[in-house]
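In keeping with the milestone schedule agreed at the kick-off meeting, the structural modelling team has produced records for the first pair of proteins. Each record is given below as a sequence line and a structure-token line. The laboratory manager (R.T.) confirmed that both were archived under the project's standard naming scheme.
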Amino acid sequence: MQQSFTFRNIEEQRAVFGTQDVWARKLEDELNVTLTLRQDAVEIGGNESDKAMARDVIKAMVQLFHQGETIKEDLIDRLIEDSREGSLDGLFKAMESAVTMNYKGLPIKCKTFGQQNYVEMLREKAVTICIGPAGTGKTYLAVAQAAQELKDGTIERIIMSRPAIEAGEERLGFLPGDLAQKVDPYLRPLYDALRDVFGQERADKLRENGTVEVAPLAYMRGRTLNHARIIIDEGQNASLSTLKMALTRLGEDSRMVLTGDVTQIDLPKASDSGLSRCAEILRGVQGIGVIHLTNRDVVRNKIVKDIVKAFEKEEARQVEKNSGNSYRTPGRRPYTPDRHKGGPVYVRQDMPADEGSRHDDTRHI
């Protein structure tokens, strides 16, 4: 049976087909269908399930076009993936409203259901712990939410911090300049997020008048941070004791978010990372939320999502390989990793609550 979709005007047709039919060809290749335009309708050919999926994606493209979204390749990729997963409704819900408006007057929106849950947690909880792979918007959305809170007057300042740790095996050695110049390279990603939301000129002014403060995590000790949104980035590169120190800086009318990617630990020993253990300890504490984003929430670039998936596949293969190896020698017990020494701790939302976890708001998306 032939499937079709009728356009109400030429603008809808252009949004779906794209310049020189580039989006139509993409849909045909990705969904294994044929699209034939006949007057104001597109006829869809292929097997029944593929045709139904293609129609759902086309309908979603039209709906998002009328919501003011620009149809781009990454958006189509998300629509196709969510259609295969049967979760298109979640995407629509995520993109319904803006977190804030950037300096150009454009809305900053969540792009996945996981991101929407993350932003809701930022709004509701005094402390949010967000663990997820690169490109999932952990820091960017935290800055966007902080910007909105500043506009609303619910906070007086934004404090952003991260550990001053080099990436991977790189060791930069002595850096010239005063203290600010020495730590500046480590904090550059936070400056980038501020610039994207506020614009360079306003971001500079906010830093000059103290409304926005960017500092290494080590400088947090001994302070009480009132009326502020505190963003602790790259939390996987901090020890458990350092994260405890940061969390206990929280003052009156303040909120904090810890973000990190436990697959990219740059400490000399991965077991020194305290982020996963911190999330496990604080699970169930009232006013604290823990959320795990996944590769489905990667929105930076499609190739980044593919990279994350490839590494996850390889890591899973290595785990399976190692679990199949015999570590047994006569008189010795098989090796089992210490669960408290690094590595992700996945806390499922449907995990049975004990007496001490009645207020558990942990989510694993």
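The second protein of the pair:
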Amino acid sequence: MRLLAFSIALAAATALASAQGDTCRTCGVAQPAATDSVAAPDTARSGSVLTRYDHRVHRYRRRWQSLIPTQTVVQFAGNMGLLSFGVGWDYGRRKQWETHLLFGFLPKAQSDRAKTTMTLKENFIPWSFYLKRGWAVEPLSVGLYLNTVFGPEFWQKQPARYPDSYYPFLSTKMRVNVFVGQRVELTLPHNRRKFVKSITAFYELSTCDLYIRSLVQDSHVRLVDIFGLSLGLKFQVF
């Protein structure tokens, strides 16, 4: 009787395996039953095997996902407006490169109206040292950024009302800036995260092409006169 029961159970298991197909030893995913026809190269034969089509879809999605911003940034001063807001992307093997797109606000002050600025900024952070309890310090950050002010008062090419070469190689529409700074980062514990992964506070000392030109041409301008201080916060979303 025991032998008969064992034979019946073995036959049932064999029939079930034939109906469902083999099971992958690596991932445990059921494989389809073998057939006489050969599957096309771009057709997935199982959930655990990636075909050329699957790889193409994966690359396509990965490239579009790289356009999703990973950071939000707020910065005070820095030759880009009184207050600037924007988004950023980090990349590189150690996430040491960052690109920020910021929009700033210039109050009316002594001009006729308030103005809006736009800044495209590239950062490089060569080192990051972990301290403890989620704290880390980045002793050096360097980079450059392009800044423009929206408005008819600013021009890219010298207007005809000025003598030739009155403003050589420089326009009032766009400024090229360089900076050096430092950062402190706090990475939040997993159970405390709601909207961001980490928060970074930073300061930067920056100058622009116009100030460097003044330093070279005017002996009364000192090196400390051409640098400005800016403060900011960076929120790492993921």
